């Protein structure tokens, strides 16, 4: 893998890294320093068309490539990702601001999906039944659907692309990746390694851009399926536009994840997990805990939670004492600061204010410190909206039933968790809660790749989710065959063979 960062990022089209002929370029900046790392093109329509055409042409042969060959490419790919994990993490930290350990975790969670994709032979097995009726057998195959595309967000530039294209390609499809324009360097390095692993020309294309380029892909008739992760407004647009074009769409959108803390919970573990899950990665993850619901006696833990959050500090990724990094951009920082100011105006108690925090030596970083609000009510914007920053809201509930009702009233349904020592309380919670991913004494319940990432309600638009068995269903079509063979044909064949022998 080439570890240098080019001044202008190329595109992967027709198996080659080519520079765009566009006239408009965007700057990719280091969010901790403001330094310009590279420039990313707004891919032209002609270049996008070339990528789609190439992917369509490559699909003809790739779909007939034996599943064992596809699996071996994934095996080589995961080995290369592991070999280059630290160098990838350094690049990822530079362009996202994530701490080095967080960046390595981003890559590792993607590697786990690639390992799952290497098991594609067993994942794509169909079903069969003999003699469903008199002398009739029935069986099914899973077959690839064609050219797929993925539109990925800034917050996980390694993990989320690796959610998408390895599974799609392992299933026999070809893929066009459009990474976030805010941190596209890491995805380019991922594509480099995929080509190094032996991927044939045209199986993976990588293009760049913003809304105009996304709409081109959404509306192109040769693209059969769209995968997206991002905000609610964009997710809704992706889903509506894609489905209007009669495409398959999986669109993962926003979240407002709650953590319920019961009176019998392990206090130390609960508080440590509240803090880590709310401010880790600067709160820029769709599974972050942004609301803690304190039930009963835990409402007396405010000072303990405040004290635990107050020692957590942002910093540069090369600082081993940094707990999290900056926000991705100045605009993102201003948005979060706006919510903090609004929370104060709406009457919440700001127990910890990270608005004016600074990091020595990095005056141009997009820093926001841990921020804690108490006495938050469900009508406040800091509760209703996804802030996407290191901001935690504390709400009180008199009982588990009240906490469940609060969460089920929230429009989002990405993840939730409960901290308790009671198996009965945990079971009631997991059964009655209308959220797709539930943690019990685990704050961020992201499933491993042999399950699927299963957000619900306004956190997801579509039918089949990411990775796991649902991803295989999303990226394939089921073909069912019903067959009958007549015994009389056996006799005819035997008679014919005997006649030939006599002659």
Automatic annotation (TrEMBL):
Domain Aldehyde dehydrogenase: 17-481
Top-level taxon of origin: Bacteria
GO biological process, any: L-valine catabolic process
Pfam families on file: Aldedh
PROSITE patterns according to UniProt: ALDEHYDE_DEHYDR_CYS
Enzyme class: oxidoreductase
GO molecular function: methylmalonate-semialdehyde dehydrogenase (acylating, NAD) activity
Keyword annotations: NAD, Oxidoreductase
The keyword Metal-binding is annotated on this UniProt entry: no
E.C. numbers: 1.2.1.27
Family: Belongs to the aldehyde dehydrogenase family.
Cited PANTHER family: MALONATE-SEMIALDEHYDE DEHYDROGENASE, METHYLMALONATE-SEMIALDEHYDE DEHYDROGENASE [ACYLATING], MITOCHONDRIAL
Name used for this protein in its record: methylmalonate-semialdehyde dehydrogenase (CoA acylating)
Organism field: Microbulbifer okhotskensis
